[in-house]
Amino acid sequence: MPKYGYLIVEGPHDVEFTYRLLSPFGLERVQFLDNLDKFFHPLVPSKYPPGGDLQKRMSVPLFLKNQTHVIAIHSAIGDSRLVATVEENDALIDLKLLTGVGFLLDSDQAISAIKRYSNIRESLKNTMQFDLASQPGIVSKNSPNIGAFVLPDNHSPGTLENLLLKSAEQIYPTLLAAANNFVSISKDVGIDANELRDFNKPSGENKATVGAMANILRPGKALQVSIQDNKWLKREALHIPEIKAVQNFLKELFEIN
Which CATH number is associated with domain 3-157+237-254? Predict the structure, then answer.
């Protein structure tokens, strides 16, 4: 029997980020249901539209597998549903058979990384009786292993984009400089402040810079497509300490050799 893993992340960018960190270990996408281990079949929605809502996305995890592991990466479609997502699926799969259950979140809100982690920790203990370690980024060895990593580094404010910018400094330095210049001059082009409300959030400029780069690399595509197709998280980028730390967390969580 393979080792099963389940990771809950905030959104589709985080799904592709995680895939890129796991792919060097031979974990590949499962495209067809017939090729998916039956253990995870209950996580595949069988009805449309979800909850009768025609505007709601189908919450289908990205499934990865190799000879030793099958891992589901599930977007909670929002930071407020991280715990709710695993709680809902507790009725569908036997979590005790999992090697690891993990969470990937960020700290771009008005509260610190430690506070965000503490909130997740308390909620999991109250609803699922899962006992996270006292600090983020540490895997609690149990049945299953459990842990949560707060991007970018478990203590600094930020998001996935902080890590992508770290990568860009090495992989796309000239493109990064051009994107920084574009974002800088875009602050004073006479756009109504209401339209810039997302840009003016703490992580707004970083997101805009990464988005500008992604639109050069994959014009008209979403950022997750660029993460999947381009060199943000390939080869030498995986040796950047901040990125390597997330990869090592996943390896320990899912017991990947």
Answer: 3.40.50
